[in-house]
Amino acid sequence: MNQEADPKTLHTSRSPRKQAESIGYIDVLIVGAGLSGIAAAYHLQQQCANKNFLILERMNSFGGTWLSHNYPGIRSDSDLHTFGYRFKPWRGVPIATADEIRRYMAEVIEEYDIDQHIHYQHDIRRATWSSKLKRWQLEVCNLSTGKTFSLETGFLWMCSGYYRHRSGYQPQWPGMNQFKGQLVHAESWPNDLDYKNKRVVVIGSGATAATMIPAMAKHASHVTMLQRSPTFFITGRNINELVQMLRELDIPADWIHEIARRKILKDQAVFSERCIKEPDLVRQELLAGVRAQLGEAFDVEKHFSPAYRPWQQRIAFIPDGDLFAAMRENKATVVTEAIESFTPDGILLKSGEVLQAELIVSATGFDLNVLGDIVFEVDGQELDFAHCVTHLGAMFTGLPNLIWVFGYFRSSWTLRADLLGDYVCRLIKHMDQHGLSMVVPRLREHEKDMRLQAWVSEDNFNPGYIKRSLHKLPKQGTHLPWLHTQDYALDKDLLPQADLNDGTLLFQ
Asked: Cβ(347)–Cβ(355) under 8 Å?
């Protein structure tokens, strides 16, 4: 593949395909052509070659996050040796740009001829399950024509992510309508936005802010990172020395990919465990890393020491310390203070200080959605997802023939997409072998009074986008398989061996 090709153009099918509205029935319907959806297609082709499938994607190309996000500097905050697929070696630097990730995805789509299965600009509005027919009926809108049609499928593989790609979470502050400059949200970045030589305030300090600020600082007159409370950061070179050494030894790329994945995952598991067992020591190590970047005179405790313990929220990785380089060069500053109100010329802080701005960017997080914002109905009853209980964090009581791919918070999302690819294919083959056409999780008799817990324990992981939306999400129980563990080290052994006949799955 031409590595210089524009990834935004790499979605044109090379051969005619049948229109989705004329298909009628499909064995497996994959929702979303992001990283999870392409992984699902690969695993179906490799492990369930007898199944026909479609991918329906609302946007006009593949990529998911890496297509919808187009703010300056957009890049991964996970290393691509684990964020990439296990079956496709990554050959670039560990932290990659959105364009590099989409080129990688384009190679997978081309190598495995997945494009023929993808239908872009198709939005599923409603999904209705019939236990009598043992299938889902979908109401689909072809956004390019405006035509709505029906499509039926035996199995729904939900790979649409967990947040709205069209808009982000926007807090409301007094006086926002008074601001004379431009206010934009990172999730809705205008393609023609000109910030050259402008004073910019970025509200937020998570991975999005840490990504865009060094990129914007190259052209803006100054960028201020305004945070209500600090975020943990960790810096390092955007290079994997082990990978570099193995490449110099001319080790095969797939070997390098697997070795790097295992080493990175081992290191991440050790670090995560330390965050729980010795959080104060890890905190001091993280602050020491920032202090080494900004100098002893900088108030690191005020601006970079969060109230929560390390890894209760995501730790943003700063490749080559570019965010701190912008601060050292006085192209960017950090302010830790609550907002009192917007003013015509900027933002008034609770302290009384005014931040002058011509452009204000909200990097204030995601607006979480559930199952792609599709309206679900099961046998005439509209689904209340919050009343479901999760089975292995992937299936749900009361929802037949459906998998929702929800990745990891602390590890790369794609790791779970690959694991669930194996699990779903094993489940489908099991059903075929036994002449079954329906599967739905159910609590066993002794579990019907089981104490239920939130989808994610706040003590485990508590970012704002999760806390704001827990009321929309399913529950988990007190023991397996009714847990959403968020633990790759556990899942990599659990999912391949999960007992399909332990009584927690009702087959028909």
From this structure: yes
| Distance (Å, whole) CA 472 – CA 384 | 8
∠ CA(77), CA(216), CA(320), 5° rounding? 45
Per DSSP, the three-state class of 180 is: coil
CB of 367 closer than 8 Å to CB of 465 = yes
Q: Work out the mean pLDDT of the chain and round it to a whole number.
A: 93
Nearby residues of 158 by Cβ (< 8 Å), 6 or more positions away: 31, 32, 371, 372, 402, 403, 404, 405
* SS3 sequence of 352-389: CCEEECCEEEECCCCCECCHHHCEEEECCEECCHHHCE
> Is the pLDDT assigned to residue 9 strictly greater than 60?
no
List all residues 6 or more positions away from 453 whose beta carbon is below 8 Å from its beta carbon: 475, 476, 477, 478
The answer to whether 238 touches 95, Cβ cutoff 8 Å, is yes
Local confidence band at 462 (pLDDT 50, 70, 90 cut-offs): low
Measuring CA to CA, which residue among 152, 93, 102 is closest to residue 124?
152
Q: pLDDT of 281-327, one tens digit each?
A: 999 999 999 999 999 999 999 999 999 999 888 898 999 999 999 99
Q: Letter for the amino acid at 94?
A: P
Give the closest residue to 476 by CA, choosing from 485, 488, 466, 465.
485
CA torsion, points 259, 90, 407, 44, in degrees to nearest 10?
-100
